[in-house]
Amino acid sequence: MRHSQEPRAAMLSLVVSCLAACCLAGQPAPVPAPVAAPAYKAQLGIPFCKVVGKELKLNAFLPENADKPAPAMVEIHGGWWCGGGPARKVENIAGWQTFTRKGIALFPISYRLGKEGGFPQNIRDCRNAIRFLRRNAQRFNIDPEHIGCMGISAGGQLSLMVAMVPEEFDDGGPTEELKGISASVCNAFAIVAPTDLVRQWDEAPRDEIPEFDGTVRLRPPDGRIPDDARPHHRILFKGITPDTEECKALYTRMSPIGHVRKDISPLLICDGEKDTIVPGLHGKALHEKLQAVGADSTYWLTPNGGHGYPGGKGFQKVLDDFLTRTLELGAQ
Question: 182 and 97, same structural domain?
Fold first, then answer.
């Protein structure tokens, strides 16, 4: 044993001597070369379904040298369900470094927006994207049993709906070519998402403007107004407002808070402590209800965080552990 340690000791002595020589010569010590990020290839503008004459598309960012089918995460963009679009570069996906480091395939998707979409049409579109990927798992070299989803803001709400609604949820269902294919996911990573649309309506600023003649005008959405949910919800619910029990039930059915039960996919729900766009810690309220029924829910609050990607000491480990467990990854 002593004999086998001698070469190692000699090598260590040589390294120390070299470092010392560099320092004495006024030269910086050599720095190890950074580990290269895994190579990814992009496929853009892939049609995944056609609804009401509109072709919906997704983008694919795939690990180039995967030696087995990769786990996948579907990214659902935000924008008040009325704007935005799927990322066209992997670097535009929030948290992309974590996902590429783990060799996870990434699929930003589109869905119908505003008047063209609304509820439940946008939920249907997201679920059909899952069906399409599962049907085409071999084409993309992904594992059909390990497809998760994620999103920020409106995208977070849609991610939660994808993970929480039952397979037979009445959103219009699969398109003809996707019938018989499950829309289930193995997780959802939801960031600063509204989880209760009735509550969001009740707490939002009013959007009625009284006129001099006694009539009332409804103003359009205003990006300068925090939590300006009411004009958006009027668009998304085709003019229906939660002013009766029946209408409240519709809003609740389109909310994650309306689908709390034990047998849902694992969730990682994140709030920003000082979020002004979706204030009031919507995620915490949902998480507490999920905990009460024994569902698999993990919660993170970003201290002093706003309406954006989570952070703070310890968050990266929480995310790593969640992805490793739910996508069944090796330690990375």
Answer: yes
Does the structure show a pLDDT above 90 at 130?
Answer: yes
At 289, which helix (H) or strand (E)?
helix 282-292
The verdict on 4 and 63 lying in the same domain is no
Q: What is the pTM of this model?
A: 0.87
Q: Which of 233, 164, 223, 225 is nearest to 200 (CA)?
A: 233
- Average pLDDT estimate for 176-198: 98
Q: What is the rounded CA–CA span in Å between residue 232 and residue 82?
A: 8
Q: Based on the fold, state whether residues 264 and 294 are members of the same structural domain.
A: yes
State the total domains in the chain. 2
Tens of pLDDT, residues 225-278: 999 999 999 999 999 999 999 999 999 999 999 999 999 999 999 999 999 999
Q: Do 153 and 278 touch, CB atoms closer than 8 A?
A: yes
Residue 296 structure tokens:
């698999």
In terms of Cα–Cα distance, which of 301, 300, 306 is closest to 275? 306
265: left (phi over 0), alpha (psi -120 to 50) or beta: beta
* Token couple for 261: 């039960």
Whether 250 is in a domain gets the answer: no
